[in-house]
Amino acid sequence: MMPSLFIAHGAPSLALEENAYTEFLQELGQTLPKPKAIVLFSAHWEATTQQVSSVAEYETIYDFGGFQPELYQIKYPAQGHAETTAEVERLFTEAGIPVQTDDVRGLDHGAWVVLRLLYPDADIPVVALSVNRYLTGQQQYQVGQALASLREQDVLVIGSGGTVHNLRRLNWGSSEIDAWALEFDNWLQDKLKSWDTDSLFAYDTLAPSAQAAVPTPEHFVPLLLAMGAGDRNKQATLMFKAYQLGNLSLSCWKFD
Length: 256
Fold this sequence. Notes:
- The chain is α/β, with parallel strands linked by helices.
- About 30% of the residues lie in helices and about 20% in strands.
- A six-stranded mixed β-sheet has the order 5-2-6-1-8-7, with helices on both faces.
- Strand 7 and strand 8 (about 250-255) form a beta hairpin.
- Helix 4 (about 135-145) packs across helix 9.
- The model has no long low-confidence stretch (mean pLDDT about 95).
């Protein structure tokens, strides 16, 4: 059975970098069982009604500005997967989650930066999904939980975001990890490993430095979505943890 994954996508420039995290993601793509398809929630696609892509072939979206010119030349021509789109629609409908299909939108950098590192040949079909920052933590988990059976069908479920993602607090040129970011992630690590969903659903009031780490929730909720998809065995494994610019977290969690 495929795991579900939470993967931090960092800054768009990650697509051009060679470091321990990019090497980890490249190796991860080679060591995971090859999926039939990938279902990916991106923090950069927000909607109040759950969106499911039905695109046949994706355009590459450059939803950022001010980065290296080479970034805007990258293409990730992933194919869609009608069978998986239909199955996702069915599962959401069965769970009572309103759903709409989108046959226009391409892949934003929250999706293609991660996918290009995992599967550089773009040879795994993709179904992109939106996130809704206004749901409660429990509701986020239930959205992911609705898709848990996809893992038995060789579909890889990914939540792409970032546990500590506060662009206003970045320390450019810093090689030190900010204590508040580490404090938040250490709390999170403890609650994930013990599968303490009650605490995780109330992270914004219980976790130390939560307001600094998660000023807005759209990058955090893909973690709960991926966790929900891994609800069956309730086993969380931290596969990678590092930081850039003082506090921008680069982490990967596997839920078996």
